[in-house]
Specification:
By secondary structure, the chain is an alpha+beta fold. Helices cover 24% and strands 34% of the residues.
């Protein structure tokens, strides 16, 4: 009986190690900064412009159809079409907004939000 228990425990242990390695692999591949579809700069914003640039390392970045600038309560402040051959979109007149936290939302051609990024205006 002790030997059967040992064999059973060994099988369970191997399965647990496999599951942990699988989860760790997926957390590393999905959790990094490289997986972002776009990047914002300069952050924090202290000028009149905010650039939204496609991350060329992400194959999914071609799905972005529109980027929107919103305040924290969700009010849309600006919106730009993100053409497929365009690598960068610039939000102008950023100095007209008060200091605070804002959000850029990437939307696909079906109207689905596919990524968000927060940033600070600190003049």
């Amino acid at each position: 009986m002790c030997r059967e228990y040992s064999i059973f425990a060994n099988i369970i242990m191997k399965k647990l190690v496999f599951i942990l390695l699988f989860l760790l692999h997926h957390l590393i591949s999905f959790g990094g900064e490289d997986s972002k579809m776009f990047s914002l700069y300069p952050v924090p914003v202290k000028t009149s412009k905010l650039s939204v640039k496609r991350n060329t390392d992400n194959a999914e970045n071609g799905k972005i159809a529109t980027v929107e600038l919103r305040n924290l309560i969700g009010k849309k402040l600006q919106s730009h079409e993100f053409e497929k051959n365009t690598e960068e979109v610039i939000f102008e007149d950023m100095d007209s907004y008060p200091n605070g936290i804002y959000v850029v939302i990437a939307i696909d051609s079906y109207g689905k939000i596919i990524e968000t990024a927060k940033f600070i205006i600190n003049k």
